[in-house]
Known about the structure:
Elements lengths: L2 E2 L16 H5 L13 H24 L6 H14 L3 E2 L11 E5 L2 E3 L14 E10 L2 E10 L5 H18 L8 H13 L4 E2 L3 E5 L6 E5 L17 E4 L2 E3 L5 E3 L6 E3 L5 E3 L2 E6 L2 E4 L7
Antiparallel strand pairs: 1-8, 2-5, 3-5, 4-13, 5-6, 7-11, 8-9, 8-10, 10-15, 11-14, 12-13, 15-16
Amino acid sequence: MNILTAWRSPAQSFSRHKSNKTQDKAGPRPSKGIEIKSKREIELMRESSRIVATVLKEIAEMIAPGMTTKDIDTYAEKRIREMGAIPSFKGYHNFPASICISINSEVVHGIPSPKRVIKAGDLVKVDTGAYKNGFHGDSCITIPIPPVSERVAKLTEVAEKALYAGIAQVRAGNYLMDIAGAIEDFVKTRGFSVVEDFTGHGVGRNLHEEPSVFNFRTHQLPNVRLRAGMTLAIEPIINAGSKQVRILADKWTAVTVDNQLSAQFEHTVLVTEDGYEILTDRNLV
């Protein structure tokens, strides 16, 4: 789940420091800046992240034309709770669901609805989080519903590969702008644009923690040096046309200003001394 970049604050901005209902159950935890997780805390994050990976993998396998976005949300919440976790998103700043589900030109934070039917050719983004034993996992996938156009397939491919280009820069001693630059260069050289209104973030005891994880080069915030034990939600959003977005009247759903398609992938990633570990890796569940 994204947060808005630091220099914008629309009505429904996601503060990386505010508690949500799931966090309140574990007791309020004020932000202490960038947190370095202990071995025990990392093990707990592996568990919550595994739940997220499992749910997203199952959704990717089951989603089909004729289902509603509410159907997907109901399934996700059921599975998260069956595995002993709490949906991270539900109740977060009063968000009403366990997943964000955004279709076609919807960029992020789409609200599930029993009236929104998934159709062949749609490009569906599903973002969810799970909270267990005091820690969150957070991840997003983009699912093309066959048959899709070559343009849809290419956008999806570039968005996923852009995420991994950024992750490849994760290691102790590198910097946030190494991640951002790798993502930006990969996307722009392939003719697409990087949304700049939303960023990734730290994740752990809080769904949104320091630091903001940019997907483009910027001098607006410090270029943080990565340290082993940091856990980051890296989540580039890639548009087929303009990078500009607008927020709909529901104060949640962001859409492209030119009605062109958008795709997104996200992983929760652990920084290690010699590289990284993808905690929400769907290949491991």
